[in-house]
């Protein structure tokens, strides 16, 4: 397959989820492939995102479980938590996974460069550390995203704050933590650090966290943060951060001041295209630096594609993987297909967690008019003996005209696991009757998804 005019058939920029999948599949299809990664193989997901975050979620739940175990007859002596010991174990596992990514690529025959690649022109890249220049027939941009931070003009004292990458570098547990933002990252870390024993304050500029999710899910998460002991401040932003003798002091837009040890900014992410040389290759970017692509992940330049977070489509690992796989199959495997961005299941690892697939009630009403809603809220069986008052909330959004289930939304223990399976049914176009005809699995929380029979009627109707 190799086009001898170039060093490689495919050059992938970025060793994250999307880039690694694309490189491996293209190489297995017989292409001559190279990949450059400037930091560590595995990208955000493996190195400083989903994977280490989920380990932190697991770690942070133990304290509560130890306390609750008394209801089941256990008595546990003095307990303590050692953050630095945990972080050593976490980094060892991340290291192991990162090495597997590297090995899998090399085993597939991909040339891996531990280097930063930047465009010289549409077919040429310069490797920054080595100074070497390489050419490729096709180039895939898979450089992902990075946390966005306001500038020092926008937020004086920003240099004292950390972003989500910084969380994985903290080897001691702060006593107090102040988090800005109300998205996935802010609410997940708020629960993690509250669970580990820190005093957490979350400051959100809006009214209810998790904009974009179903309103009742948002409310449940918002209230859940408070129940977990997080102080939630809304309609507020930071005005300045100052170093004090005992830590940091943040002045808020309300004029109030909050003393803290760590300030975590979780106010969104941006595409990683700074200084990549997209202009030299002629690749068009959107306003915030995202690479503009079509449904086949093609940029405006005929030999250049982009997948994953850098495109600003849906910033989720499995989406990047599928986009990368589709690109490689299409361009090198003679099996054209494209990623379908509808009905992507997603989870927010709050405690309890959120799992959701399909559209929200508000979106369904706006798009389809008449909608049937089924919902339930209950204390899961496990909590009956341990005194935990946490409830599980479930909601089905159904199109009235044909009874198709448009959305399944759950807040509760194992919501992510439930939704991954429910997503198959939603993706297949299941109706409410299909859910009704599915036999329950007892005793479980998930059985409630197939036993909701009474349509919700708004009060006063
Ligand atoms: P999000 O876009 O989810 O949230 C950003 C938050 O910051 C919002 O609450 C937003 O408010 C607020 N914000 C934005 N700009 C400002 C500002 N200037 N001042 C104050 N607040 C501001 O971003 P995240 O960084 O949390 O996550 C990025 C993406 O990464 C997610 O969208 C998701 O796709 C992915 N991710 C997925 C996870 C998972 O699958 N579990 C976990 C973590 C991340 P507003 O709502 O008003 O816009």
UniProtKB/TrEMBL annotation:
Boundaries of each FAD/NAD(P)-binding domain copy? 8-324
Select a single GO molecular function from the record's annotations and give it: NADP binding
What InterPro entries does the record point to?
FAD/NAD-bd_sf, FAD/NAD-binding_dom, FAD/NAD-linked_Rdtase_dimer_sf, GSHR, GSHR/TRXR-like, Pyr_nuc-diS_OxRdtase, Pyr_nucl-diS_OxRdtase_dimer, Pyr_OxRdtase_I_AS
Q: Which cofactor does it need?
A: FAD
Gene3D superfamilies for the chain: 3.30.390.30, FAD/NAD(P)-binding domain
Q: How does the cofactor bind to this protein, according to its record?
A: Binds 1 FAD per subunit.
Which cysteine pairs are covalently linked by disulfides here? 45-50
Which UniProt key words apply to this protein?
Disulfide bond, FAD, Flavoprotein, NAD, NADP, Nucleotide-binding, Oxidoreductase, Redox-active center
A GO cellular component term found in this entry reads: cytosol
Pyridine nucleotide-disulphide oxidoreductase dimerisation domain mapped to chain residues: 344-452
| Catalytic activity field | 2 glutathione + NADP(+) = glutathione disulfide + NADPH + H(+)
EC number annotated for this UniProt entry: 1.8.1.7
Q: Where is the active site?
A: 442 (proton acceptor)
Q: How does it assemble?
A: Homodimer.
- Similarity comment: family membership: Belongs to the class-I pyridine nucleotide-disulfide oxidoreductase family.
In Swiss-Prot or TrEMBL terms, this protein is called: Glutathione reductase
Q: Which organism is it from?
A: Hyphomonas hirschiana VP5
């Amino acid at each position: 397959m190799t086009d001898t005019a170039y060093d490689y058939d495919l050059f992938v920029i970025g060793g994250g989820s999307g880039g690694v999948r694309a490189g491996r599949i293209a190489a297995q299809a017989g292409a001559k492939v190279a990949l450059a990664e400037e930091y560590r193989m595995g990208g955000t997901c493996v190195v400083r995102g989903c994977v280490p975050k989920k380990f932190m979620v697991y770690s942070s739940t133990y304290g509560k479980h130890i306390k609750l175990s008394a209801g089941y007859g256990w008595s546990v002596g003095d307990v303590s938590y050692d953050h630095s010991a945990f972080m050593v174990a976490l980094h060892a596992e991340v290291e192991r996974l990162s090495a597997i990514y590297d090995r899998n690529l090399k085993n597939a025959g991909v040339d891996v460069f531990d280097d930063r690649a930047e465009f010289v022109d549409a077919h040429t890249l310069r490797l920054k550390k080595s100074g070497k220049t390489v050419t490729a027939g096709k180039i895939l941009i898979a450089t992902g995203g990075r946390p966005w931070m306001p500038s020092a003009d926008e937020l004086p004292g920003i240099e004292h704050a950390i972003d989500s990458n910084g969380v994985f570098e903290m080897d001691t547990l702060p006593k107090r933590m102040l988090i800005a933002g109300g998205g996935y990252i802010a609410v997940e870390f708020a629960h993690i650090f509250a669970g580990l024993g820190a005093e957490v304050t979350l400051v959100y500029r809006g009214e209810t966290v998790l904009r974009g999710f179903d309103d009742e899910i948002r409310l449940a998460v918002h209230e859940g943060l408070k129940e977990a002991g997080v102080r939630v401040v809304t309609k507020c932003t930071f005005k300045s951060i100052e170093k004090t003798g005992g830590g940091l002091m943040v002045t808020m837009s309300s004029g109030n001041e909050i003393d803290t040890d760590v300030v975590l900014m979780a106010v969104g992410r941006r595409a990683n295209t700074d200084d990549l040389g997209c202009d030299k290759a002629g690749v068009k970017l959107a306003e915030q630096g995202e690479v503009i692509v079509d449904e086949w992940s093609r940029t405006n330049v005929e030999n250049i594609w982009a997948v994953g977070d850098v495109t600003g489509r849906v910033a989720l690992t499995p989406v990047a993987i599928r986009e990368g796989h589709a690109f490689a199959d299409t361009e090198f495997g003679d099996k054209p297909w494209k990623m379908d961005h509808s009905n992507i299941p997603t989870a927010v690892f709050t405690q309890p967690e959120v799992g959701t697939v399909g559209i929200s009630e508000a979106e369904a009403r706006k798009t389809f008019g008449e909608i049937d809603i089924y919902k339930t809220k209950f204390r899961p069986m496990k909590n009956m003996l341990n005194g935990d008052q946490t409830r599980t909330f479930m909601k089905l959004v159904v199109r009235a005209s044909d009874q198709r289930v448009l959305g399944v939304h759950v807040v509760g223990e194992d919501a992510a696991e439930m939704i991954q399976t429910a997503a198959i049914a939603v993706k297949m176009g299941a109706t409410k009757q299909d859910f009704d005809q599915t036999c329950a699995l007892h005793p479980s929380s998930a059985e409630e998804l197939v036993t909701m029979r009474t349509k919700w009627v708004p009060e006063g109707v």
